[in-house]
Amino acid sequence: MEDTVPPVIDPRRVPIHVACVMDGNGRWANERNLVRTEGHAAGEQALVDSVDAALELGVKWLTVYAFSTENWRRPVSEVRYLMNFNEQLLLRRRDELNDKGVRIKFVGRRDWRIPRRLLKRIEESEELTATNDTLTLNIAFNYGSRAEIVDAVKVLNAEGIEPTEAALSARMYDPEMPDVDLWIRTSGEYRISNFLLWQSAYAEFVFVDAFWPDFGREQMFAAVAEFQRRNRRFGGL
Ligand code: IPE
Ligand code: IPE
Ligand code: MG
To answer: Residue 22 C-alpha to ligand 1 middle, in angstroms?
Structure first.
């Protein structure tokens, strides 16, 4: 890994938690007369490069949106491809991620719709990397923010606990996950698409025109530089 964090980035003000909507794979493929699934395949390198950039920057949490609760609406063939693709990606990449000190985690509903083979790879990858602490790579899979909030409220109810912000935060899928500092979406869409609503209450949003397969270290550095130009006030002055 090269050490090429641009000097405009202040190492003391790097976001702790970066969240990424990896969008535009299908359009990237369409533009090249390829089938949509080849766009997903091309997105793998962008993910690896983003992880490397996060490591170089010293970001502690990177959450990437890989499959939403709404993505089940896609044709069965694409859904099947994505399930298999993510399983294979874990097999291909978990050892090198482990060597880089990355802790792999999954956030989302682990329900019956996720193939058992993929669930198994998820659990193995989490176990393999559980003690790493350089960067947590959180893969949002079968994730929907509204479902997460509803699930948290159900837990609160079952426990008979008075709802407070802290109580609800502690019952999100990953209670350890810090609030999002920098929230990025590729592909020129200006939508949240049900990604980390609760955790992004005070996130800085950066929208990038590039499709996800064209995202990489440079674009990640540019997004962090943009983040550092913002003035976060959290309601104060
Ligand atoms: C993002 O790319 C990946 C997933 C949602 C799994 P898309 O598949 O949404 O690509 P576009 O937005 O149709 O171009
Ligand atoms: C959001 O992208 C989900 C992921 C990137 C996994 P979508 O492509 O599904 O979102 P919409 O449909 O454009 O809102
Ligand atoms: Mg999309």
So the answer is: 7
User: Which of 149, 161, 177, 137 lies closest to 47 in space, CA to CA?
Assistant: 137
* Domain limits for position 111: 15-144+180-228
Residues 28 and 211 sit within 8 Å (Cβ to Cβ): yes
Q: What pLDDT score was predicted for residue 1?
A: 52
pLDDT at 3: 64
Q: Write out the catalytic residue numbers.
A: 23, 71
User: Does ligand 2 come within 6 angstroms of the Cβ of 68?
Assistant: yes
Residue 75: CB atoms within 10 A of its CB come to: 9
The finding on whether 67 has its CB within 6 A of some atom of ligand 1 is: yes
Which of 196, 191, 178 shows the shortest CA–CA distance to 65? 196
Does residue 119 sit within a domain? yes
Number of domains in the chain: 1
Can you tell me which atom of ligand 2 is nearest the CA of 21? 5
**122 part of a folded domain:** yes
48 touches 89 (CB < 8 A): no
pLDDT of residue 186: 98
